[in-house]
Amino acid sequence: MEKYNLDDKGGLFKFIAKSPAKIVKQGDSIELKHFGVFNLIKATAGNVTDTSFRVQSTDKIIDAKISTGDHVMLYYSSGDNYIITGEVGAVNNLDPIDLIIKVEKIEKLKDLIKEKKYCVSLNAGFKILGVPEIKQAAVKNISFGGIKVNCNEDIMMEDIVEVTMYMDKLNKMPFKGRIVRKNKIGDKYEYGVEFSEMTETSYKLLTRLIYDIESRV
User: Fold this and answer.
1) pLDDT the model gives residue 12
2) What are phi and psi of 111, to 5 degrees?
3) Do the beta carbons of residue 71 and residue 81 sit within 8 Å?
4) Residue-level pLDDT at 186
5) What is the dihedral of CA 126, 207, 143, 40, to 10 degrees?
């Protein structure tokens, strides 16, 4: 397996925008992925500012558990295909979906693929050494070397964790990983987890996920 490679480096000419007002157009279609919902949510971009925008959807989402501060990623197309990452700034309604998204980054999908860095929003369960209960985490980025996650639990560097990542309603991807990166972000921790042990079935699921993302370009 490859080494963990999800640190934000970026090439000299890599396109990164932080202001959605420069990219996102009100009324355009957009797809939202939240780790608490298996499927992409088809939505429409609403009011756009320099730091955030509104997303509204008529899709019926059963038991959607979306809260302020949750990580999200969105697919947006306007000439180029873009990946927007951020967090839920406000929940106006959940039936139908009506959210304010605070934007962290807007990047071209083709640039991320060149770097072998793939943005996602997936739910995962962490089994930490010495902790009996499973802790929840939101997977933000994935590569063939590891994942980047948000988690409320304080985990020691170099600890080995047992992770189960939920790909969709039918498939889950278990593996063992090592904590190789740790940052405190607000009331959460951001971890880089390098793959250390994985079954062939899990590797096939990982490959399929990355293929599905790359096919969007």
Assistant:
1) 53
2) -70, -40
3) no
4) 87
5) -70
